[in-house]
Amino acid sequence: MSVTIGVVGSVNLDLVASGAPLPQAGETVTGARFAQHPGGKGANQALAARRLGAEVHMIGCVGDDALAEAALTLLRRDGVDVSNVMSELGTATGVALIAVSPEGENQITVASGANSRVGPSDVAGLPKCNVILTQLEVPVTAVEAASRVAAETGALMAINLAPAMGVPPQLLKDADLLIVNEIEAEFYGDALHERGGLVALTLGGNGAALFKMGKEIARVPAFAVDVVDTTGAGDTFCGALAVALAEGQVPEQALRFASAAAALAVTRAGAQPSLPKREQVEALLKDE
Question: Measured on CA atoms in the order 16, 204, 207, 175, is the torsion positive or negative?
């Protein structure tokens, strides 16, 4: 079944130092390996959905610097429609500074750059979609605009509430799907469940769960894989869950599909380079 996903979100270039212990405050560590990859929560989720078989339209913003084209490379190569990704004159492309430990855990600092320029007028470029997926690495006004478009067109409105921050309560109430990790779930608390939509909670090595009106309706354990780099795993989960629900998969099946995709993402280094293809996810599901 062919589905269409619209993503309103960030486009970054990831600068990654891996293989050294994560530093404490004020500490310098050495011995890391350096790599550069396209990233940003929005772009990661868009590419994840595309590799899992969806038609994907990306709304975002990059700068007019040398980093912009590098940040869009894999989106273009894999066929994500980036015709509505704006280039803002005099602005830097967003950058994420990522440290990855030998165990695959990470620390991330983001310089938002052009991502802060995404606004309601940009969202107007979205075509009709089955799902509109957003995150909080772009201004909340853009997320609110996406929510209005979803309501007007009948699309399922999905918000990955990352990074955790205060948002208008109505935004949470209007969403059909909220996606959080444990830290974000603690930040938002009961506000996540004050409406009739779904709430997906990722639990790292303990799997994932799906709630409706505060009641758990599905839970799946984590897949046993060798962890190389957890960067992008949450974004993979978001993109995969959006695709699964758009395809009409039942809650437990959709949750398992998303968890399998996220599990495969941690077995390779880098956010976008690690994103799995549909046949790889289906193979993992078949083997379990």
Answer: negative
Range of the domain at 57: 4-11+40-92+113-287
Higher pLDDT, 287 or 121: 121
pTM score over 0.85: yes
Q: Residue 149 maps to which CATH number? A: 3.40.1190.20
Decide if 17 is inside a domain: no
> Left (φ > 0), alpha (ψ -120 to 50) or beta: where does 73 sit?
alpha
233-246 vs 41-51: helix crossing angle, rounded to 10: 50
Over the stretch 73-114, which tens digit does the pLDDT of each residue have? 999 999 999 999 999 889 999 998 989 899 888 888 989 999
Check pLDDT > 70 for residue 21: yes
Catalytic-labelled residue, pool 81, 176, 229, 235: 235
SS3 for 6-33 is: EEECCCEEEEEEECCCCCCCCCCCCCCE
- Report which residue type is found at 276: P
235 is catalytic: yes
For the chain, the domain total comes to: 1
pLDDT value of residue 1 = 63
